[in-house]
Amino acid sequence: xxxxxxxxxxxxxxxxxxxxxxxxxxxxxxxxxxxxxxxxxxxxxxxxxxxxxxxxxxxxxxxxxxxxxxxxxxxxxxxxxxxxxxxxxxxxxxxxxxxxxxxxxxxxxxxxxxxxxxxxxxxxxxxxxxxxxxxxxxxxxxxxxxxxxxxxxxxxxxxxxxxxxxxxxxxxxxxxxxxxxxxxxxxxxxxxxxxxxxxxxxxxxxxxxxxxxxxxxxxxxxxxxxxxxxxxxxxxxxxxxxxxxxxxxxxxxxxxxxxxxxxxxxxxxxxxxxxxxxxxxxxxxxxxxxxxxxxxxxxxxxxxxxxxxxxxxxxxxxxxxxxxxxxxxxxxxxxxxxxxxxxxxxxxxxxxxxxxxxxxxxxxxxxxxxxxxxxxxxxxxxxxxxxxxxxxxxxxxxxxxxxxxxxxxxxxxxxxxxxxxxxxxxxxxxxxxxxxxxxxxxxxxxxxxxxxxxxxxxxxxxxxxxxxxxxxxxxxxxxxxxxxxxxxxxxxxxxxxxxxxxxxxxxxxxxxxxxxxxxxxxxxxxxxxxxxxxxxxxxxxxxxxxxxxxxxxxxxxxxxxxxxxxxxxxxxxxxxxxxxxxxxxxxxxxxxxxxxxxxxxxxxxxxxxxxxxxxxxxxxxxxxxxxxxxxxxxxxxxxxxxxxxxxxxxxxxxxxxxxxxxxxxxxxxxxxxxxxxxxxxxxxxxxxxxxxxxxxxxxxxxxxxx
Length: 706
Hints:
The protein is an alpha+beta fold.
């Protein structure tokens, strides 16, 4: 984008001061007059029916105003998303499903009242255990994102059987949880048949549409605001029960109601990354060129709603292989409904694929960077489409240079420092480029300032700032003259923040509105009228049009770890990522996004994971004391770099999404580094000390036998 002045600059986030001084208001911090609070009651069985709800003690509790159950809650229209059909019938599809809601004058009163509700059940046998041979597993029509569940070309079985080098390995990724710092929270208020909601959401336009359907109201009778959102990572991409419960309680009581879900309730009701069991079979010629790739995945879904993690799809993109099969199978269990978590599909899928590539490099005695480079495809392997841009090789080369990869001794256990074994690993990354239709308005005011209005979401990523940069350059004015309004359905409708598509979608509409405004201003003599001049844009039919190009972002991850042979603890000493993601729109916020994703990938590799308790049908890790997320001290040296791409097949800014590609290759790079350090190949995440020690002991026994 020649001649730009704002796009690409490391501009500070505009809402930063408001957030650090506490003046930024989140969903629970909009207290309308006479606001009350509500606390849900989760089911304590894994499957069955509610037979009786005794709310007498709760209603006698000080400050309790009402107890909503399936018997007295307002009726909803049929939900397109069955996870939102709360308090509508006595069925209990999984533990943690909400069976009552207590409304109190204060949060404490509501919580105490919820503890006093007595629920009786008719309990049914449950099944929550996923296995790769589960008898109920089936091949769905498609996986998340509309991807076909199965893809095949050539003769992958024959190619694998005749390959000079072969690996056949399995990997396991446990359930993972989003855990944003701001829990899912909504405040609802009714004024006759008009509903106003403040909610923590990645897309208030979507919330408006869903509530309009559930309550059978015109969309313009519902106002949804999400001005500031304290993280989401996918779990706030669709409406969750909190917003429906708040609206139900507000309608029943006639008071504004806030529902802030306790953190321990989140794993059961706001989605999670489903566990994935992977089988990878890679065949290659002696020179490392892949002859066949087979990636098969088994995952779970709930009995409420089908959701299939598309974990085998990255194998359709990454490497040239004349024979390829990818397959997803899913088992419906009595578990909470899985949903989006940062880089759904790609994060667990690339962990398995890139770990398998590392194993193949060992089998061939080949440098793992060079193995990836030699398998660079000319076009997207699955579709045959040409890539709009693909600079993975450049990312690998540049990352290897910055990481000093050439000085690495490839032999496992070749570096030690007392009880510490030191190793390094590499992995590639990819994430699809997506854009959704959005609308935006740009207004020029008589004082020389400009206002950009678009119902974008700012979930901590700096979208206000980046959209102002796009607008400033499209208008040809200084950034200081541009103001951005986001986060309300009062603004032009926009897509949700998900799939790394937010800025690409909103920015496209903003760019077009500003370009139109600039053209009008150039033709207009004299001062502007008091109301200013406004131009609008709608990208429907363009942002969602089929493309003849395969559009993806790519990256390369490098990791150095130290493994303590006494404690089994793995410490990541250094992470380095190099990415190719189109034009980078803001160097400061982009680096923050890449680093955040890489840190989340570190958690996936070493600390994060849930255990499904087979007897109780419940996730055992339900808070931040037991579900361990990484902190700054867990990686003392982390670098993010990028290669600026000039890709004309994306959007007017030439940008690709960057929110998710940072996580995609990190876990595999760390796992590969652990193998290089120890000689032990661990194939189940997270790489906790107990697993590392068990692996070290097994490896020592094997060496002793030899």
